[in-house]
Design brief:
By secondary structure, the protein is of the alpha/beta class. It has helices at residues 15-24, 32-42, 44-54, 67-74, 78-102, 135-146, 150-158, 163-169, 182-197, and strands at 3-9, 29-31, 108-112, 127-132, 172-175. The structure holds adenosine-5'-triphosphate.
Length: 198
């Protein structure tokens, strides 16, 4: 059985940065949030389900996803958003299962997801890593990276579980507070996973 490790953390915590280091160590990473976006364009089963649920305007005549239209439906409508998630989520799980099969030669694999605990996706992982950092640092990183306002970042933060909550689920915690060195913490986990995975 392939060892599957979930990596998560709040917005700006540095989970993608952490995953890039794992990739440098040769470990394949499945970026669930990116896949969720791309399969709306590529998974025929999901495409049909979206068309049936949100209507023919969901895709343009040449088959391109009409992201603006779908966003306008689910924006500020919790029920519609839940409908969308209930279609996309199983498709991401299918994509992950197939991706794992393609990487069977790897000692372990990583799944990165912003809402790993919130979505229940962690249940499909054997271990999970939570990346944490102080709120102010996370805020400043995202402001710098995305150029968006503190209010918008706060709104996004409010949609995620708090770190206090997530810590209860986490098997491992990486402290990315720019005081403790990050890479040695990652290498230590990598060594542990190599032992478990072999
Ligand atoms: P999101 O959920 O918003 O995608 P994330 O958790 O994936 O965020 P990253 O994109 O990895 O976070 O990091 C946010 C920003 O902070 C990036 O620009 C990254 O380069 C920077 N960053 C992350 N960790 C550090 C660090 N230890 N020192 C300096 N900059 C960092």
């Amino acid at each position: 059985m392939m060892l599957k490790v979930g990596v998560t953390g709040g917005i700006g915590s540095g989970k993608t940065t952490v995953c890039k280091v794992f990739e440098l160590l040769g470990i394949p990473v499945f970026y669930a949030d990116d896949v969720a976006k791309s399969i709306m364009q590529t998974d025929p089963v999901l495409k049909t389900a979206l068309l049936n649920t949100f209507g023919e305007n969901s895709y343009t005549k040449d088959g391109m996803l009409n992201r603006a239209y779908i966003s306008s439906i689910v924006f500020n409508d919790k029920q519609e958003l839940e409908k969308l998630n209930s279609l996309v989520h199983p498709a991401v799980l299918r994509a992950f299962d197939n991706w794992v099969l393609e990487h069977h030669e790897s000692p372990y694999v990583i799944k990165e997801a912003a809402l790993l605990y919130e979505s229940g996706g962690f249940k499909m992982c054997n271990k999970s890593i939570l990346v944490i950092a102080p709120t102010l640092i996370k805020m400043n990183r995202v402001k710098l990276r995305d150029g968006i306002s503190e209010e918008d970042i706060q709104l996004r933060m409010n949609r995620q579980f708090s770190d206090e909550m997530k810590i209860k689920y986490a098997d491992h915690i990486l402290n990315n507070d720019e005081k403790q060195l990050l890479i040695p913490q990652i290498i230590q986990l990598h060594q542990q996973f190599l032992l478990i995975g072999s």
